[in-house]
Design a protein that fits this description.
alpha/beta; Aspartate Aminotransferase, domain 1; Aspartate Aminotransferase, domain 2; 13 helices
Length: 389
């Protein structure tokens, strides 16, 4: 579009002018079924009536006052997020990257407040993605994100996912926390095994280490439960959320136990915009929708239906070899270029997004119905016939 933009995105040459539920409509009038959702953000679809009306109503009242004052929608949102999770306290910011930064600071100050100032290192996992700040790209450890931004921020050690022996070997006297995505998104849709998560919790308890879950992509109903950790029934000490929390309005959150949260006293961390009346009002409306009885069951059921359809395409089409994921967070391990497959799907009216390791991600709105599943699978079937293995 405009040449004045920094050219840090390899943009697809489409501009959308309208969104309706699970579909986006381009300027030329072409309709697309949106299985990208702004990279896992618009989980309630486009132009959701409750969210849109809440935004308009709050915009007519007050947008921003800063955290110098009480913010009623913020207090309400904190109460609801903690009530529906393991947590006792919530902190609000503007993005997933900021949420992870806050979680890392919480881990350090937790140990420092107990007299263990040398405990600052965080154990992370191969193929992780935790954001785009200097600290979070160091936490993620992916070379493509680190290149050109050296030196790497100190304090992160990385091991293989689902390898408990490697975790045991990596823990040292300076280890403060373990940071993990229960389901990796950008890294290729890899699911952390429930037994592995139980092992992490036991190791953390035995070594007085904090367990941090990054649920920025896999949380907020994406897997069929409000929080992905509920599948393993292994609670963390800290959890980060963002993306779908605002359904497109920027907001991030950090949920924590009282023992962790109490160490973040006034003056230790803050944000100008985080949790302002506009953002938290919208997030409350998102929760209103997701907590309706049957909503999460629908995600689980419709996700299973989609994966069943996808499994049928393996073997008879030499395009992808494996279906991974849970709920409506799905990864296709491609045997052709994932970029080529994404392009072929787009030509058939289905939007998707690539991930690391030659994987294609399908992140549809959580509101999709069986007719839209059939529409997506028909597009996938057609795209498979156009790709040359």
């Amino acid at each position: 579009m405009s040449s004045a933009l920094v050219q840090n995105y390899a943009r697809i040459d489409i501009a959308f002018e309208q969104g309706e539920g699970s579909h986006l409509i381009a300027e030329n009038g072409k309709r697309y079924l949106d299985f990208t959702c702004g990279i896992g953000v618009t989980s309630l679809g486009h132009s959701n009536a409750r969210v849109t009306n809440t935004l308009k109503e709050q915009a007519d009242k007050v947008w921003h006052v800063s955290n110098l004052y009480n913010i009623e929608p913020q207090a309400q949102l904190a109460e609801r997020l903690t009530t529906t999770s393991f947590a006792d306290r919530a902190f609000f910011c503007n993005s997933g990257g900021e949420a992870v930064e806050a979680a890392l600071k919480m881990a350090r100050i937790f140990h420092s407040s107990r007299g263990d100032k040398e405990r600052y290192r965080v154990l992370t996992f191969a193929n992780a993605f935790h954001g785009r700040t200097l600290a979070t790209i160091s936490a993620g450890g992916q070379a493509k994100h680190l290149e050109g931004f050296g030196p790497r921020v100190d304090g992160f050690d990385q091991v293989r996912l689902n390898d408990l022996d490697a975790v045991k070997a990596a823990i040292g006297p300076a280890t403060a926390a373990i940071l993990i995505e229960p389901v990796q998104g950008e890294g290729g849709v890899h699911v952390a095994d429930a037994v592995f998560l139980k092992g992490l919790r036991a190791l953390c308890d035995a070594n007085e280490i904090l367990l941090i879950y990054d649920e920025i992509q896999c949380g907020m109903g994406r897997t069929g439960k409000l929080w992905a950790y509920e599948w393993s029934d292994v609670a963390p000490d800290i959890l980060t959320a963002a993306k779908a929390l605002g359904n497109g309005f920027p907001i991030g959150a950090v949920l924590a136990t009282e023992a962790v949260a109490e160490t973040l006293v006034p003056g230790k961390h803050g944000t100008t915009f985080g949790g302002n009346p506009l953002a938290t009002s919208v997030a409350n409306a998102v929760l209103d929708e997701m907590l309706v009885p049957g909503f999460l069951t629908h995600v689980e059921t419709i996700g299973a239906k989609l994966r069943k359809h996808l499994q049928k395409l393996i073997g008879n089409k030499q395009v992808f070899s494996e279906v991974r994921g849970i709920g409506l967070m799905i990864g296709l391990q491609c045997t052709v270029s994932n970029l080529d497959f994404m392009t072929a799907l787009r030509e058939e009216g289905l939007l998707s997004v690539v991930a690391d390791g030659n994987v294609l991600r399908l992140l549809p709105p959580l509101i999709i119905d069986e007719t839209e599943i059939d529409e997506a699978c028909a597009a996938l079937e057609r795209a498979c016939t156009t790709i040359t293995p």
